[in-house]
Fold each of these.
Amino acid sequence: MIWLGDRAGYLSDWVTQQWVRLTGRRIRLADHCWLDGPRGNTRGIGKGFFAGYASQHGLEIVEDGTRGLMPDFRAVAGASLDPDMVAPVVRDFYEKTSAYELDVWSEWHGMFKPFGTALAVLFSRRLQQLNIPLSPLDSSKGMSSDVLQMWDRRSGRLVQTGWVRELHATRNLLYAGSYSICTVPGYPSPCVKVVFPLPNGNAIVLMKPESHPDGSFSLTSSGKGFGDPGFYFTVQGQGETIWARYVQSMQERIAVYAAERGTARADHILWLWGQPFLRLHYRLRKAADVVASA
């Protein structure tokens, strides 16, 4: 890997950032606060990212008690989501995520698997971010799941929740992402916002929540253009400006549903140019239930 210095970082990262600058738009974060989120340095991300981020931004990390990605599931209620329609175990998972253990199975599709391997070699393993399993054996020993609430010391307000997951078999970070609720210009109801810090910027996924008659809950990142839910790359500009690129060709859907007693399951599908390239299946079980069945 070619190192260009602390400001530019590695060549592969710098090239990606130039693509965002050339094809995206330059905006002021004050005018587009829905695109604000944790940004990484050029050295990498890793398990300790949120501890450093909280220290720099005057936030207090809480790791005690039961913590959820959504402390109140009703915060995402809207035109397409009636919280009362969603199965209790699904709501419980989002409100008490730290109490659950996760198992994951992955399947890359056909011609896209070499793309996954290249992504791992060029970016994921080095950055310790977004290490999607390339083989079912990568996730065969399970994963850790750390939920970190970040509170503003002055206002006492929960700012965002970090979710850090590490694969036990490979010791690679599956991902470090921050979760919050926001609204976007192109959608009338609240969206779930997930931010993945990257060198000099981040990847942001804005997902539309929806409840279904069978009690399941889905999150979908798709739209027609900038300002809609979907996938964004951002790169830090000067001061409070960033470069932002909406990637319409990248879409995903997560469906979470009640399964066997006390268990929820999730099917996560990612598309590129309309073709599914990766499927992830999760089993979500309360840690106490796992111990009781052992």
Note: The chain is about 15% helix and 40% strand.
Amino acid sequence: MVAPTHEPRRSPIRHPARLITTAFAVAVFAGTALLMIPASTEDPGGAGLLDAFFTATSAVTVTGHITVDTPAFWSTFGEAVILVLIQLGGIGIMTLAALILVGISGRIGLRQRLIAQHEVGVLTLGEVRGVVRRVLVLSASVEAAAAVVLSLWFLVRYDEPLLRAGWLGLFHAVSAFNNAGFALFSDSLIGFVSDPVVNVVVMVAITIGGLGVPVLGELTRDRLHWTRWSLHTKLVLVTSAGLVLVGWIVICLFEWTNDATMGPLSTPESLLAGLFQSVTPRTAGFNTIDFGGVREATMLFTSALMFIGAAPASTGGGIKVTTFAMLGFVILSEMRGDDDVNLFQRRIPSVAQRQGLAIALIGVGVVFATTLALVEITGFELGPTLFEVTSAFGTVGLSTGITADLPVLGKLLLTVLMFAGRVGPLTVGTALAVRSRDQRFRLPEERPLIG
């Protein structure tokens, strides 16, 4: 008698797309059901399926796109549901990204594992519990600090009642750290354009949340020892700082005399507004100026910042700053005629270059196809439509104000795009890393004409 054979259970890491997609889909469906409860809305009757589904997806993917006015439409219970979904989405993506890195380390050779462990810092199976604890402690610490400062400021500076001030502080702290962009003010943070406390606290929370677990872990471990930092940490910090600085300058130049945005502001207020609008496209979605009134050049430039996004294993979206920076150096090396791509005294392997190129081109294709579809469906102009699509793909949430006017099919397309923008880059990047393998043979080489 032959004993029955049992197929060994496969680790979830063998199917990262299934693991990530399922986790976020369950959260979206649960959030949709809760938001459809009559208690979730200010008016009796509850929210419709489309509005609830769109809002739940936007919250779980920490995007911030809305089809209804958040403070006017949702009750305190509904706002609490949104807040929980934001927290689950932010912590979930950071934890899943870190744990998937742990899982990948068990699928590669010793040499590659040592390299990866040096660059990321958390790639041993024994550190799974430590990864989760680090994410939770980091999130709670930053959110608590931001919530206390904002709550006290709303209480003292704006004479908000104690409970209201506490709720405003907590909600915006969680939304900022998780790069969600949901606000409890109908005009986002436009009313606080000249308030340095609100601006600085929100920007700091956005920046910390957008750096990612590997970078934050290395910074807390090695402090300010630049020579001890990994290539990943150096690349994230330098590129992020460069993008913020360039964005600050460009946005100020474009909007300084625009009467619909920064024109009426004083010089300090304009500088503060320009800096905030440079930080928020990291995928945060808050705004202190009306993006419906910005110039087309600002709209296009901000779309580029949103497409790039934040760092890997962070609460932000986009193709990631490391992908953008690496591809930039690939172009530079090719222009110089160099055989290798070198960064901070390290050589970038060709497999990483191919993976970065694949993620970037997939992102371009998705944004192009969705923009083309929405222009055809809605008849809206190309500029605002591209801005809206890029914002959804980068899980930013910035809008020129056309989201609520989209037809049902347009809203569904944005919903799918928000979901794909959140789980897509991580899923694709992980799948490419897991599928990496050595070939036993190579075909004859022949070079096509390029350019």
Note: The chain has one domain: 14-435.
